[in-house]
Amino acid sequence: VHAEGLGPEAIAALPPGVQRFDLAEGTTLVGRQHQAQAFETLLLAAPSRLSFISRTHVQLDARGRSQLTVTNMSTNPLYVDSDPLARGDTRSLARNQILGFARLESGAHVHFLRLRVQEPPDGG
Question: Which of 85, 99, 102, 117 is buried most, with the most CB atoms less than 10 Å from its CB?
Fold first, then answer.
């Protein structure tokens, strides 16, 4: 996890439910409407960035241990690693890939929140 305004120590001190989003089999919607407290906590040092997280920003679909896809449900910028994902586009995700939330600044996208795709701590 990287969140603008929070250093590694501050991120490490966050509760597990804020540091990661655990996915069940099936569809998980991600955004301010669904994980409000997590996004508010992650962006505590940069609260104006919340306006760049849509109510429903991302749809994640988990099928078994090895199949995970992401769909951008928002007009706000979303990246998979360094590649932009347009609204409505879907892409497969692999372990260690990064979902990046960005804002427009001086004509360029600036990433303010990055989340890494990882397996659950228990390996499940």
Answer: 99
